[in-house]
Write a structure and sequence with these properties.
Rossmann fold; 277 residues; eight-stranded mixed beta sheet
């Protein structure tokens, strides 16, 4: 997925229309906590880069997601800059009283982030609960367009969650050699949601929701369901303990590539590196 924007001028002669459509904008407080905590744990070095720029695409009707991102990551890096982007000018205007330049800023924009940040590159882009409302055919072009604003080695996170944020599923992409490479599919829980892992199938990234009958997704969720059944058969009732034990069973008894870091699993994350598809 090469970035064709490298062949275009970084400063267009006239303003470019923001690419995308307004989100529904209904994001509850702390809905994206699972994603922010995961990034702080798994990509600490990236967050701590001097003067790192991170972008929250489609923050919604309120500025909460951008402000919460800043509150969670800026203690790790006081020089971190957080940019909230929305295609709706009224939402951006409503967010401006919360701006604290250069640490926290808001701009009108869409997927064409290069038109906002110019020659600068973002180290992390989070586009969450946005592409779910698009057609599947529009997902890859949107990811491609956003990746043009991503620094080499930077990451792009895209996915969705349930309304409370108690469970989340998201793709992590990394920019390597000028192109966007899928790095993993992450499942996160706060241990308060029952019916795992089946509940994740309702909140998968847009690229997967129409492919749940394909062989590999069927095999993975069947194996994960089997892991939970084995754990429950052992008499384990604690949701946290069951989550940890089921992840260990997956790692030991299947060929799926699962992140083995206990500090992630214990915090409620299963990180799958085997593509689905």
């Amino acid at each position: 997925m090469m970035c064709a924007a490298k062949l275009q001028p970084t400063k267009p002669s006239k303003p470019t229309k923001a690419q995308g459509q307004p989100t529904r904008g209904k994001t509850a407080l702390n809905r994206l906590r699972r994603i922010d905590v995961y990034v702080a744990l798994a990509y600490t070095n990236l967050v701590r880069l001097p003067n790192a720029l991170v972008v929250d695409v489609g923050f919604g009707a309120q500025a909460w997601t951008t402000l919460e991102m800043a509150a969670r990551w800026q203690p790790l890096n006081p020089t971190l800059r957080v940019l909230g982007v929305e295609i709706d000018p009224q939402r951006v205007a409503a967010a401006q009283p919360y701006a604290v330049p250069p640490a926290i800023t808001f701009q009108v924009g869409g997927f064409n982030l290069t038109d906002l940040i110019g020659a600068e590159a973002a180290h992390l882009i989070r586009c969450y609960n946005v592409l779910r409302q698009y057609e599947e055919a529009d997902v890859l072009p949107a990811l491609h367009r956003m990746s043009c604003a991503l620094a080499e080695g930077g990451i792009l996170i895209e996915g969705t969650s349930n309304p409370s944020g108690g469970i989340a599923a998201f793709d992590v992409y990394r920019k390597q050699g000028g192109s966007l490479q899928h790095e993993g599919l992450i499942f996160g829980t706060n241990f308060h949601i029952p019916d795992l892992p089946a509940a994740f199938q309702t909140i998968l990234p847009k690229r997967l929701i129409h492919h749940m009958q394909d062989a590999l997704p069927v095999a993975f969720f069947a194996a994960w369901q089997r892991a939970f059944a084995v754990v429950r058969g052992m008499g384990i009732r604690s949701r946290r303990t069951a989550w940890i034990a089921a992840a260990a069973w997956l790692i030991s008894n299947t060929d799926f590539a699962i992140d083995r870091r206990l500090r992630l699993i214990r915090r409620g994350y299963v990180c799958l590196y085997t593509p689905l598809p």
